[in-house]
Specification:
Layout: E1 10-11, E2 24-25, E3 30-31, E4 44-45, E5 50-51, E6 61-62, E7 67-68, E8 80-81, E9 86-87, E10 97-98, E11 103-107, E12 110-113, E13 118-119, E14 128-129, E15 134-136, E16 143-145, E17 150-151, E18 160-161, E19 166-168, E20 179-181
Antiparallel strand pairs: 1-2, 3-4, 5-6, 7-8, 9-10, 11-12, 13-14, 15-16, 17-18, 19-20
Length: 191
């Protein structure tokens, strides 16, 4: 009868083998996808972004979304979870991405924009509400004071202009939360 190949995930180094039990398993973190491998060097290391905790395998397992594996030949039972403020929305990845400023981590595979009136720096787990008299910048990366002559009690709505004849409570500074009428002998045109 003809000689039979060692199965995928295994290799045979010696000559004259008489049974499948003489084929040896590739170690954890390594694999061989073809049959008939004749050397341990035929067992390849799992690529970064993959893992394999079992011996004698014909392939490696890809990291799922939200997880990563930076090392080749990983013997872990699962890939590592993305840490604080980081995410991964693709499979088979060796790194996690940072949530940008103006976003917060929603889960291990996504970030979401800060809501109305809120801001965040890069790699944020949560967004913070802007203070009265300020509103978030367009990128929601930080808060900015309402311009002179403008006010905001609620950071979730845009700054509003003071009526002619009134000024912000901060007088000559930005970040007003209300307007007050000009005193006798003074005036203020529309901003």
């Amino acid at each position: 009868s003809p000689c039979t190949d060692c199965s995928a995930g295994k290799f045979g180094e010696g000559v004259g083998a008489s049974s499948a039990s003489q084929c040896r398993n590739c170690t954890s973190g390594r694999y061989v996808s073809t049959t008939g491998s004749d050397a341990k060097t035929g067992c390849l290391a799992c690529a970064a972004g993959q893992h394999q905790s079992r011996q004698g395998q014909s392939g490696c397992t890809a990291c799922v979304e939200g997880r990563f594996e930076p090392d080749t030949g990983s013997v872990l039972a699962s890939c590592r979870e993305c840490g604080s403020g980081k995410f991964q929305d693709l499979e088979s990845q060796s790194f996690c991405k940072s949530c940008p400023a103006g976003y917060r981590k929603a889960n291990h595979s996504a970030c979401i924009s800060c809501g109305a009136g809120a801001h965040s720096g890069a790699e944020a787990e949560r967004c913070a509400l802007c203070d009265a008299g300020t509103v978030p910048t367009a990128s929601r990366a930080k808060c900015q004071g309402c311009a002179l002559g403008w006010y905001s009690r609620d950071p979730t709505v845009p700054c509003k202009a003071c009526q002619p004849g009134s000024v912000t409570d901060t007088l000559s500074r930005v970040g007003g939360v209300s307007c007050t009428e000009c005193v006798r002998g003074k005036y203020s045109p529309a901003p």
